[in-house]
């Protein structure tokens, strides 16, 4: 069953080497992510699963030891998911590479790690079904859920300004802060797609995994420094 979850944003800019001179702008987000991962470690899981948005080439499971790079962002930096077991498999998509970087940054060694890439258009029902299946993988499962809110909060945002974005992100923020699985499931998948909210599907996977687990939530970060909603939360 699910015993804990950390929700973190997944922009490559979270990695200081990628952000370069702009790195300090996300220091507060990095600190919040570290705090959320501390909650995962304290839960003593038997298995940690990292979930993040992915395109068709990156969707599906990735084993412990899988690697990813940030070369496409102009940085010669490689990351590994957990331990090197000699079975790297496919390259990690960007969201999972950021998750692997966060785990390495905090020195994760508390449980085996796997990952799952989720296509951003995955239907709500399939998201929750996936989450329930993940929660049944071990007696004590923890999730690191990577995903951004809307990308339409300002005119300089990747998706330009959409007046609906603020309320969409506010609803997600309330749901994540309260560990409200019903409210997460109620997020409109079509609207999320229009607002380029890469976290909608991973958050709904979390909702499926957490149903009946009785977890409490805490919101650690909520901001949109580049016109994209970045949220950090911890459930335990």
TrEMBL record:
CDD domains: ED_3B_N_AMMECR1. It comes from the Bacteria. SUPFAM superfamilies: LigB-like (SSF53213). Gene3D superfamilies: LigB-like. This is Class III extradiol dioxygenase subunit B-like domain-containing protein. It comes from Streptomyces laculatispora.
